[in-house]
Amino acid sequence: MSHKSDIEIAQATTMDPVEAVAARLGITTDDIEFYGKYKAKVDTNLLKRLEGRPDGKLVLVTAITPTPAGEGKTTTTVGLGDALGHIGKKTVIALREPSMGPVFGVKGGAAGGGYAQVVPMEDINLHFTGDMHAIGAANNLLAAMVDNHIYQGNALGLDPRRITWRRCVDMNDRQLRFVVDGLNGKANGFPREDGFDITVASEVMAILCLSRDLDHLKEKLKSIVVGYTREDKPVTAGQLKAEGAMAALLKDALKPNLVQTLEHTPAFIHGGPFANIAHGCNSLMATRMALKLADYVVTEAGFGADLGAEKFLDIKCRVGGLKPSAVVIVATVRALKHHGGAAKAELTVENLAALEKGLPNLLKHIDNVSVQFGLPAVVAINRFPTDTEAELDLIRAKCREHGANVALSEVWAKGGEGGVELAREVVRLVELGQQHFHYAYPLDVPLKAKIEAIVTKIYGGDGVDFAPAALKEMARMEEMGFRDLPVCMAKTQYSLSDDPQKLGRPENFRVTVRNVKVSAGAGFFVVLTGEIMTMPGLPKVPAAESIDVDSTGRISGLF
User: Fold this and answer.
1) To 10 degrees, what angle do helices 243-250 and 131-151 make?
2) Which among 191, 498, 503, 547 could disulfide-bond with 529, CB atoms 3.0 to 4.6 Å apart, if both were Cys?
């Protein structure tokens, strides 16, 4: 096993020219725009030409509730894609783009790990093809047009105290969470309280990722609510005539980005909405394109099955008419022992008691996938050298009782070869064809009922307590005609409940909804529970301190 860092492994790999990666999918150079030798954008018109083609099989990778021990969801996704290639399946991987803020903060890079990575990993983790910058520019253009409208006479009667549209920047910068701007006299605008979100939390990101084409994108941008009048009427980007210019900034960002894995499997990396605030999956455009070009498409959704997978299935699949054929639930022995109460320092020591205590978390995620959504699931154990046979046997036995097989995954150390067992089980599930896919709730019920369905069915809670502000806002939104939209829960990723301290499979809990807002452009309600940040901060020792570049332009310290 190599002890090289992820970036050293990536830099030691010889990449194929991106036109060769495209050619393996039948994409000609007429359909791609080159961003250097190893990255390209694929023309959205290709999707129109492929319309008559049957779709490949969609495989979703999700995970248990995340822990500091790490689960390796992206690594498993990349390795599974490579492994499917090993057993003769034409495969495309569809992933989110990393946000630069977390890259410089705690998380480091987000392009997989070990011998299961997408490359060029430095580019993917930094500016890539400029999509994040385009989304930030479109978001901030709308913010500028809002304040300019007020400055120029405020014909729409926007209440400056009720502007809901915030500026954004793709960086972890807590100083910008709450600001006062427009100071120093009349010529400099109208003084008001304001704030910044990180770009991946912007509604523009969610819209880009749920748009079917450029016209659909424009329609969705037009519907963004930027604030309210004193008479409580919503004011939209369409009323400000902003959607055309915003779409012009986003026209290239809408095109999926094509790269490759270390083993040259084609990968679309496109869009990256936050999973504990927005819907946490890559773009609908990239997923639909991948399905037309491959037999198997492996994609992932952020965090555990209670967050990313729930939103993927209830929001993205609904909007895009998608139906997954199988779901992979990633877990590690270490993380399950953490859920069972083992201290972080003791996770490498065999501890069957802690593992047994932590296993209900995994079993709840299996239940969510197979019972609540009616999809076949396989558990992928991302194997570590310290895992013992007794621990692995215990997981196998418990999962079998819940109707899910376990496959060991060693893709971090061995690449695609280490994921062949997992790939064979995925293909077996797909070919069995036992999908009875259904959503967690219908769209035509009251908002309250949708939230209660997610909390009781998916989280395993006893019910929901609504703060007075939330009840008032829900009644107001339903009066305005916002009703038949899906729900996007903003909740901690660290627990099935809304309390990050409750590990494992908590019981006898209720979830408190403190407020609800509508992302009318994206087409969902955002339901706020707990203290969810839309602008993270940097840690005491940011990853940025270890990142460097030498005189030849070679980057180091990036994971």
Assistant:
1) 160
2) 498
d(CA 400, CA 404): 5
- Among 175, 176, 180, 173, which Cα is nearest to 194's? 180
Residue 303 annotated among the catalytic residues of the structure: yes
> DSSP string covering 30-57, please?
GGEEESSSS-EEEPTHHHHHTTTSPP-E
> Across-strand partners of 92?
297
- Let me know if 275 is a catalytic residue: yes
Element (DSSP H or E) covering residue 223? none
Amino acid at 58: L
Residue type, 119: V
412 noted as active-site residue: yes
Helix (H, G, I), strand (E, B) or coil at 474: helix
Position 110 confidence tier, pLDDT thresholds 50, 70, 90: low
Average pLDDT of span 482-490? 92
Q: What is the pLDDT of residues 429-450, one digit of tens each?
A: 999 988 899 999 999 999 999 9
Alpha-carbon distance values, 3 to 7, 9, 114, 558 (Å): 11, 9, 9, 15
49 is a catalytic site residue = no
Instruction: Report the predicted TM-score, pTM, of the whole model to 2 decimal places.
Output: 0.94
* The total number of residues written for the chain in this structure: 559
| Cα separation, 504 vs 67, whole angstroms | 10
Catalytic residue among 412, 466, 482, 525: 412
* φ, ψ dihedrals at 498, nearest 5°: -95, 10
Note whether 29 and 20 are within 8 A (CB).
Answer: no
Q: How far apart are the first and last CA of the chain?
A: 18
- What's the rounded Cα separation, in Å, for the pair 12 and 554? 12
Q: Are strands 405-409 and 377-382 parallel, antiparallel or unpaired?
A: parallel
75 classed as catalytic = yes
Marked catalytic residue, from 24, 90, 107, 424? 107
The conformation of residue 240, written as its DSSP 8-state character, comes to T
Q: Which of 22, 247, 275, 294 is catalytic?
A: 275
φ/ψ (deg, to 5) at 501: -80, -15
Quick check: is 104 catalytic? no
Q: Dig out the tokens for 263 from the structure.
A: 């083993």
